[in-house]
Amino acid sequence: MNSYMDKKYEEIKGTVNLKGFRPGKVPVEVLKRQFGKAVFSEVLDKVLKDSTTKALEENKIKPAGQPKLDLKTYGEDKDLEYIISVTEFPKVELKSIENIKFDEYTVKIDESETEKRITEIAKNTPSFKDAPPETKAKEGDLVSFDYTATVDEKSFKGGEGKKYTINLR
């Protein structure tokens, strides 16, 4: 971690302006006191991402989700030690389908069964016919209409409908 931290301090050294120091001349010890925690968090995050990605690539592991990290030891003057847990995509081997055997079935449907089923569907599905506009709707009719709803005589979003249908029951 120390080498990564030193690189980061050198990187920010040139951009930090602190009272009493010329730009680029702030001592590393002052930077550590001032920005130590923020720099450590940033470096730790970068090192974890880089080392995790490298470990997964080297071991040819394709994670199925976000890896879980369990930090064991870490700190500015310590080596970084952590355990990574990943769920890996399963390895799938493609095999030829030419050797697969299957039974082929044919289904024979009696014509009377087909007619019986069509009659049941027709009986359960009502058919509607257009009625003259002056006809009063009654129970069982399907009514189609347009509407505009208002609150205190003001329309609102979603308060409008075109060709809205309702079955009177």
Describe this structure in words.
This protein is an alpha+beta fold and 169 residues long. Among the domains are: 2-61, Trigger factor ribosome-binding domain (Alpha-Beta Plaits, 2-Layer Sandwich); 138-169, no CATH class. The protein has helices spanning 2-13, 28-58, 111-124; strands at residues 68-73, 81-85, 142-151, 154-167. The strands form 2 sheets. A two-stranded antiparallel ribbon has the order 1-2. A two-stranded antiparallel sheet has the order 3-4. A hairpin with a 2-residue loop joins strand 3 and strand 4. Helix 1 (2-13) crosses helix 2 (28-58). The radius of gyration is 37 Å and the shape is elongated. The mean pLDDT is 84.
Topology (elements, then pairings):
Blueprint: H1 2-13, H2 28-58, E1 68-73, E2 81-85, H3 111-124, E3 142-151, E4 154-167
Antiparallel strand pairs: 1-2, 3-4
Q: Which radius of gyration do the C-alpha atoms yield?
A: 37 Å
CATH superfamily of one domain: Trigger factor ribosome-binding domain
- Could you tell me the mean pLDDT? 84
Q: Low-confidence segments, ≥5 residues, pLDDT <50?
A: none
Distance between the terminal alpha carbons, to the nearest Å? 75 Å
The portion of residues forming beta strands comes to 15-25%
Largest sheet: 2 strands, antiparallel
User: How many DSSP E strands?
Assistant: 4
Order of helices and strands: HHEEHEE
CATH architecture of one domain: 2-Layer Sandwich
The percent of residues in helical segments reads 25-40%
According to CATH, the fold-level topology of one domain is Alpha-Beta Plaits
Please work out how many helical segments DSSP would assign: 3
The strand line-up of the biggest sheet is 1-2
Q: Which class do the helix and strand fractions yield?
A: alpha+beta
Categorize the overall geometry. Answer: elongated
Q: For this structure, what is the CATH class of one domain?
A: Alpha Beta
